[in-house]
Amino acid sequence: MPLQQLLADLLGDINKPAILWQALAIVLCVASGWSLARLMHRSWLENREHTGLIGLGMGSFSRVLPPLLILALLAITRAVMARYHSVHLLDIAVPLAASLAVIRTVLYLLRRVFARHGPLGEALKTFEKMFALVVWLGVALHITGVLPDVMHVFETTELTIGKHKPSLADLVEGIVSIVVLMMLALWAGAALEERLMNVERMHTSIRVVLARMSRAVLILVAVLFSLSLAGLDLTVLSVFGGALGVGLGLGMQRIASNYVSGFIILLERSLTIGDPITLDKYSGRVARINTRYTVLRGSDGTQTLLPNEMLITGVVLNQSATNRNVRATTKLTVSYDSDLTRVLPLLEAQPKGVPRVLEEPAPNVLLNAFTADGYEIEVGFWLGDPEKGLGGPVSDVNQKIYALVRSGEIKLGHPAMDMRRLDAHIASVVARTPGQT
């Protein structure tokens, strides 16, 4: 058996200097691989000046660099030492390092694609365990020498699929190629999207469009390339394309309309991230623009998913489409006994100095109406960052006005029929009525 032969060779090398040289080489390769990975991490990831493709690639593969470098050093060392003496110990170390590199690479790609901004799901954890088990099983079969026999069984076992009779090995190879290429495409799309979102000089909508289109192109190329590697005729896609066109024409018009509307919104920049908008009964700030729907975050924290078709066909009130400045107001009713020539300038001065309130345009005060309770006055001021909300500055201005009310500089209006005065009047009448005690 190959395993017995390998163990016999290792036992035979124990009393030879070759086993010590191999053990020392393994230790040096492991130490050198980790040290070189840390050096590359410091020189590329911590240096913000490197923003090219090399820096992006180094940042993406920083977690899998150590096992990859260790594998490369072990393979080179084995090739060199094989010229002078036996390398039975390295024959075991190289497959183990290769399995570790494969596991770390695949797991990192999975987490980058499916769990970049959140915790790992149970399904992903289960898949990671199953994948690691399959890899270690393959290494065990390789070391024991059973792997060639297993591969022969896979190559000789044929499956009948229509007119084709692919072997089980071809089927497994096609599935593996599709999975690997799709993972690489999704990882590349996620890395490119993350990179594009950090480009401050580019408009937000353009960044989102480029990220979405680049990911779609990468996935399409990966699918076509993996199908060709699996031995499938790409002409069958014409039939699928015709069926997809019929489906779009019959039952998927709304879905297709939402996707097209999403790209239109992003390209024409009618909406951008952070715009405060109102559509029908929905109002809030644009938190995210996807290809099918737009996420609208309300002032109370609730999120509304608006289909993009509504934003194209409906009337949208965008408070910052061409100008980021938004006017916020607060209203109060002052007593008819107040002197407006003194009260109006006093109220106009309150928004000044409040954080986020603009000096230009300057705050203004309007006399809106003469109500039964007093003068209705509106205090207006402008904000240049509506994406942060209007509640904070309005509350600060109201607190300053409240201080004026407490100090007596401003007297608020009261209902024409003050119930407290009515109660006092009734009590005095009752007290003057003869026969009442």
Structural notes for this entry:
With 437 residues, the protein is of the alpha+beta class. The chain has three domains: 2-145, no CATH class; 235-322, SH3 type barrels (Roll), CATH 2.30.30.60; 326-407, Alpha-Beta Plaits. It contains 15 helices and eight strands. It has helices at residues 2-13, 17-45, 53-60, 65-81, 88-114, 122-144, 147-156, 168-197, 204-229, 236-250, 253-268, 308-313, 340-348, 391-407, 419-432; strands at 276-279, 282-289, 293-297, 303-307, 316-318, 326-334, 364-370, 375-383. The strands form two sheets. The protein has a five-stranded antiparallel sheet. Strands 6-8-7 form a three-stranded antiparallel sheet, with helices on one face. Helix 9 (204-229) packs across helix 11. The protein is elongated and about 125 Å long. The model is unreliable at 49-57 (pLDDT under 50).
Helix fraction?
55-70%
What separation lies between the terminal Cα atoms?
119 Å
Number of helices: 15
Note poorly predicted spans.
49-57
What is the overall pLDDT average? 76
Beta-strand content bin: 5-15%
In short:
By secondary structure, the chain is an alpha+beta fold. It has helices at 2-13, 17-45, 53-60, 65-81, 88-114, 122-144, 147-156, 168-197, 204-229, 236-250, 253-268, 308-313, 340-348, 391-407, 419-432, and strands spanning 276-279, 282-289, 293-297, 303-307, 316-318, 326-334, 364-370, 375-383.
